Amino acid sequence: MLQAIGLTSARHRGVLPAVDDLTFEAGSGCVTALLGPPGSGKTSALRLMLELEPGRGITYFRGRPLHRVAHPAREVGVLLGDVPGHPARTARGQLRMLCAAAGVPASRADTLLDTVGLAGLGDQRIGTLSPGMDRRLALASALLGDPHTLILDEPAEGLTAREADWLHGMLRSHADQGGTVLYTTQDPKEAARSAGHVVTIDTGRLVADQDGVDFSRTRLRPRVAVRSPHAARLAAIVSREARAARRSVEVVTEASSSRLSVYGSSCAEIGDAAFRHGLPIHQLADEVGDTKPGDSSGPVRPVATSGPLCEGPGSAAEAGAAPAAAADVPEPGVRPAVNSGAAQLPPPIRRRPARGPLRPVRYELRRLFGIRTTTLIVVVALVASAALSLLLARNGRTPLPNLLAAWPSLLPLPPAALGAGLLGALSFGDEFRYPALAAGRGTVPRRIGLLLAKLAVSAGVALLLALLAVLASAESLRLVYGVDLVRVPANAMSLAASWSGLTVGCAWAGLLAAGIFRVTAAGVAAVLAVPVLMVPLIQAMPKVPTARSMSGFPGRLRGLAWLQWPHEVDRWALAAVRVVAHPVGTALTLSLSVLVCAYLFTSLRGRVRW
C-alpha cells in the first residue's frame, strides 16, 4: 500500500507550487491512476514520493518512507521517462548491469525478457528499439527487484492501442498478485478502462478520489457527436423536441460552431430530426464524452480518504497501519510535523540521490564491457602504438623505452596512456550522460564503494592496455626489423613501474575529473593537461642545486616500521620515488592530488551519504 500525505513542492517566490498539499492512497491489489491535464503536477508528485525533489510531505510504502527501506529496488519499481541506458548497449546487457545494481542474480534478466515479450530481442541495441519495445524494456527494468509497488509516469504515452492494452494487462497482473500500481495519465478514458481507483488532480491539488465505477459514471458520459453546417438550428430543434417529449437532453455547442455534443439522445433520434427539417449532417457518431471536474454534468466528490479504496492482498490491514494512523504516529526516526501557529506542516522532503550498486565491481565490469566503445578504444590504441613504434625505429636514434611505449616527442602522451585516460573519463562520463541505476533516480551517486570499484576496474584495464601496447610494439618491431632491435633493458623493472604508473594515473585523472564535472570532455581535458600544462610548469621552476642525497631512504624507512619487509621491497620503493621525482610523475601526482581533494569537496558539499 502507498500512502502520500501532504505532498507540497518547494515554494519559489512568485511561482505557485507544482503540488500543493496532496494526500491520497493507492491500495494493494489495485491499479491506481493519477489523472490530470498537462502541467497539473502529476510528475512532480511522483518525484516528491521518490524523494527526488525537495518539498514537504511524506510517502509511506507499506508503512515505511523510501529512505527507510533497506533495498529500494526490491520495494519500489520506477518508470520515469525512457530507458536510461546507453543506446549501444543490448537489452540483455542493460538488464544484467541493473541486476548487479539491484543485487539480484543475472538470470533474472533473461526471465524478465521472456516475461515482457523480448526474449528474441535480447541482443538488440537499445537505440534501435521501437517505442513499444523500449517501454517493455523499461517495465522489465522496473520489475528487476521483484518490487511490491510500481510507480510509472505516462507509461502508455506514444504506444499503439494494442501495445497500451498489453501494458495495462501487465499492470493488472501485478496488482492481482497483491502488488500496488500507481501510474499517471492525462486521458480519462484510459483511466476508466484500466484503473480500479482514480485520483484526479489539477494545479497540484486533489480534485476527486474515486473508485473506477464512480469515476466512469460521474466523469465520463455517452454522447452523440454531430457535425452540421446548420448546427445552431439543429441544436434548437433537438432541444425543442426534447422539451415537448419531456426528455432530459443536453445540447452543448463545441468550440467549432459546426459541431454539437448531445447528451441523453441517440444517433437515430437526431438523424430523424435533421431529416424531418431538411438539415444536412456531415458527422453523426456515438462517443464517450469527458466532463471536466466541477462541470454541471455530474457530481464529483472531492475527498481526503481515511481508508483503502481497493481491497486486496496486502491492504491496509495487512500493512498494519491506516493512513490516519500513519499520519498521526510517524515511524521512529521520521521527523514529525512542525507546529506553525494553527497549521500543521508536513515533514520536509530532502532530495536524496539513489543508492549505489549493491555489487559495484560486477556492475562496473558490465558497464565497461557492455558496449563496443571499450573494445574500439583498445584496438585503436594498440594499432596506433604498433604503427608509431615502427615509424620511430626508422631513424635508429629513438631509445628503446620510447619505442616500446610508442611515445614520440611530438605527442603529449603515448596512445596507450591516452586510451586509458579516455576509458577512465567514460567511466563516469557515460553514467552522467546515460544514467543507469534507475529511470528518474538521477545520475549514479558518487558513493565510496562505487568509486573504489571504478578505480580498481579502470586501473586493471589501464595495466592490461599498457602490457598489450608494449607487446604489440615489440612484436611489430621484431617482425619488421628483426629480433636484434628488441631486447630487455637493464632497468626493466623501474621502466615497468614508470609505464604502469603513467597509464593508471591517466585513467584515474580522467575518471575523477569526469566525476567532478559530470562530463567526459572534462576527464579527457584533465588527462591532456598533465603533459601540456603541468609538466612545462614544473620544468620552468627554478633549478635548486641539491646538497643532499636520498640514498639509504628505504633502509631508514624500514627502521620506522613495526614490520620488517624483504630487502627486495627497497628497490621497489626507490623506483617509486624516482618515478614521482620525474617531471611527468610529479605533474601526474599533483594533478591526482588536486582531483581527489576536489572530488571529496564536491561530494561533501553535495551532502552525499557515504
Structure description:
There is one protein chain. By secondary structure, this protein is α/β, with parallel strands linked by helices. Helices cover 47% and strands 14% of the residues. It is built from 21 helices and 16 strands. The strands form four sheets. It has a six-stranded mixed sheet with strand order 5-6-7-3-8-9, sandwiched between helices. A four-stranded antiparallel sheet has the order 2-1-4-16. Strands 11-12-10-13 form a four-stranded antiparallel sheet. Strand 11 and strand 12 form a beta hairpin. The radius of gyration is 33 Å and the shape is elongated. It starts with a strand and ends in a 5-residue tail after the last helix. 42% of the residues are buried. About 8% of the residues have low confidence.
Key structural traits:
610 residues, alpha/beta, 4-stranded antiparallel β-sheet, 21 helices
